[in-house]
């Protein structure tokens, strides 16, 4: 029997992993840590030396594995609990990995630079990994599913959890522009029972 523990904070990317766990339908233990105190305590630093959340501890068959980084946790859980149906078949696997890690890499970097008012010059554009914010936004908008489709095809997967969190927070906090592609996707995501359960419990900032 496996046991899952998620170390998180409700004002963090840990909410992505929390949503993923809710989609799985597996029992798990939730441990909320505070910034600067319990997140930097020796017992937690032994789990994640970065002193950041989220971190997932999976105890299985007498051994314990630790996974950090929200995208990695989503990908790991989709494979570890494949019966939940959150891992696409090989037909959808390319889009699944492509857009999950696009959001975890170039898109997040572009969003954070924009949020911190970092302007990328033409000379720096080739070095930052995402080009420019507007280019990253256009690429993500082009990946938005239409109709009944999801990121990797007809099946809702872990990629929709991670990409969906990027779009959800982007629209709510203004880090993504209000565009029809993003809005239509978000409107579908927020009707999912797991999304409603997790984010309705999120305290106001």
Automatic annotation (TrEMBL):
Keywords: Transferase. It comes from the Bacteria. PROSITE patterns: GST_NTER. Residues 1-85 form the GST N-terminal domain. Its EC number is 2.5.1.18. Belongs to the GST superfamily. This is Glutathione S-transferase. It comes from Polymorphobacter multimanifer.
């Amino acid at each position: 029997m496996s046991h899952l523990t998620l170390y998180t904070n409700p004002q963090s990317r840990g909410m992505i992993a929390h949503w993923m766990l809710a989609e799985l339908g597996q029992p798990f233990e939730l441990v909320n840590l505070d910034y600067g105190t319990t997140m930097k305590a020796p017992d937690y630093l032994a789990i994640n030396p970065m002193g950041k959340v989220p971190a997932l501890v999976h105890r299985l068959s007498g051994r314990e594995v630790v996974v950090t980084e929200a995208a990695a946790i989503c990908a790991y859980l989709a494979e570890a609990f494949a019966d939940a149906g959150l891992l696409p078949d090989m037909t959808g696997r390319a889009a699944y990995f492509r857009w999950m890690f696009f959001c975890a890499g170039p898109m997040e970097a572009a969003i954070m630079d924009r949020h911190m008012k970092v302007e990328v010059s033409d000379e720096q554009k080739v070095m930052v990994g995402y080009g420019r914010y507007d280019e990253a936004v256009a690429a993500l908008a082009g990946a938005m599913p239409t109709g009944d489709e999801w990121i990797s095809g007809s099946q809702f997967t872990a990629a929709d959890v991670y990409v969906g969190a990027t779009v959800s927070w982007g629209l709510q906090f203004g880090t993504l522009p209000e565009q029809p592609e993003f809005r239509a996707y978000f409107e579908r995501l927020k009707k999912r029972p797991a999304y409603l359960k997790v984010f309705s419990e999120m305290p106001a900032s």
